[in-house]
Design goal:
Elements: E1 3-5, H1 13-21, E2 24-26, E3 40-45, E4 48-53, H2 79-91, H3 97-104, H4 115-130, E5 150-151, H5 185-192, H6 196-202
Helix pairs in contact: 1-6
Protein name: WbqC-like protein
InterPro entries: WbqC (IPR014985)
Organism: Maribacter vaceletii
Length: about 210
């Protein structure tokens, strides 16, 4: 049985646990919605949980809703430089930042127009770091209710935390902040390195048993 999820920006740990554990395919045909992980991610910074937000070009209101696949990134803002600077500041002292730096940095120096294409590229690069294959299958039309497959599109919602069970790991600012769960996969990768895939496979996805 396959699991349907959205491609999101440097996805959170639970989303990547699904990718690591299950057969996944991508939702390409839905409408873009605000307040989701489509254009935002969270990392652990010196002052706690920090948001990274990708600016997008908003369509004229009379056009109505836009498809996710049609959303364009607003590159008039230096968001890539800002995001990379934040990642460097937050993770330069982490055990595995330099180990993965050459793979991750090009995501912040290469311009992309499509948000969906960019998000898939971030996932592809991280899959390479984890040494797993990126899922290739995608939807060709929108279906609100799946008949056979498992619908995990709710994981895109940045305002609702899914039920899962995972061990804590040491984060860069553990000495001053409490553990921050389920932030970007980059936090796990930079802190746990080659152990990251084992960690992802050990996560109990409790929301699948509801």
């Amino acid at each position: 049985m396959k699991h349907l999820i959205h491609p999101t920006y440097i996805p959170n740990i639970v989303t990547f646990a699904v990718i690591a554990q299950k057969e996944v395919y991508w939702e390409y045909m839905d409408n873009y919605q605000k307040q989701t992980y489509r254009n935002r991610a969270y990392v652990s910074a010196d002052r706690g949980k920090h948001i990274l937000n990708i600016p997008i070009i908003h369509s004229n209101k009379e056009k109505g809703k836009q498809k996710y696949k049609d959303i364009k990134i607003d590159n008039s803002y230096p968001w890539q430089r800002q995001h990379w600077r934040t990642l460097e500041t937050a993770y330069r002292s982490s055990p595995f930042f330099e180990f993965y730096e050459d793979e991750i940095q090009p995501l912040y120096s290469t311009k992309f127009e499509s948000l969906l294409v960019y998000n898939l590229k971030t996932i592809e690069v991280i899959c390479e770091c984890l040494q797993i294959d990126i899922p290739k299958e995608k939807t060709t039309e929108y279906t609100s209710k799946l008949e056979q497959d498992i619908d995990l599109r709710f994981l895109v919602n940045a305002k609702k935390e899914p039920d899962y069970t995972a061990k804590k790991y040491i984060q860069v600012f553990s000495d001053r902040n409490n553990f921050i769960p389920n932030i970007s996969i980059l936090d796990l990768l930079f802190n746990e390195g080659t152990n990251s895939l084992t960690y992802l496979k050990d996560i109990q996805l409790d929301f699948l048993n509801v």
